[in-house]
Amino acid sequence: MDGGREDSVTVTFNGQDKEIPYEPHASISALLEHAKQAFGVQSNHLLALFNQAGVELKDDQSAQAAGVEPGALLVLRQSTVKGGA
Question: Is 21 within 8 Å of 74 (Cβ atoms)?
Fold first, then answer.
């Protein structure tokens, strides 16, 4: 596997991988919405995107500012922060 296309990132969720469009200046929250749509996840506000190191990406950062590059592998899973505490 070569890491995907130049203009997309791969998101993994529940053992499935999907490629979603990558826009360097789009916010992480926009990327998160694309990922939720790709997997058909509706209205789950507890999900977040994580990088391969397991660090949760901040919704208000741009993809580029968060260190996300074309071809990156991101993980969609339960947020460690949004669950309330």
Answer: no
